[in-house]
Amino acid sequence: MTLVQMQPRTANAIAVGRTVADAMDTAGPQVCDDMTVEVALSVMVSARTGHLLVCDDSGLCIGLVTHARLAAVREGSAYSDRVRLRDILGDLGPFTSPVTTMAEAGHMMRYNQVDALPVVDEHGSALGVLALAR
């Protein structure tokens, strides 16, 4: 019998093999892009979340809005109670896949300066959200 000395794995070593699927939160509230900013803010407060996944009419994830983004829109001079989420989404993305490594996702979040990424499957359906820990 040979003795083997075991050394604890570092947190960095554990994170190297992790994928987004290992760390993402469930999708949470998903709203349609025709929802107004006011209603979206109410949904956020009710759900006690800081972000919402936005889907189109066919149910595909087209983006993510944060409480900070909605509050900034509401404070803008061009705001009216008819502004819809589709009016403020801008470019689509970034998104990530559940098989993306955590290192790649972290790089994507830093590069795009976002605190949360929608996680979508190969068809564009929302699976969850990868968010920075607060």
UniProtKB/TrEMBL annotation:
<dbReference type="InterPro" id="IPR051257">
    <property type="entry name" value="Diverse_CBS-Domain"/>
</dbReference>
<keyword id="KW-0129">CBS domain</keyword>
<dbReference type="InterPro" id="IPR046342">
    <property type="entry name" value="CBS_dom_sf"/>
</dbReference>
<dbReference type="Pfam" id="PF00571">
    <property type="entry name" value="CBS"/>
</dbReference>
<protein>
    <submittedName>
        <fullName>CBS domain-containing protein</fullName>
    </submittedName>
</protein>
<dbReference type="InterPro" id="IPR000644">
    <property type="entry name" value="CBS_dom"/>
</dbReference>
<feature type="domain" description="CBS">
    <location>
        <begin position="24"/>
        <end position="80"/>
    </location>
</feature>
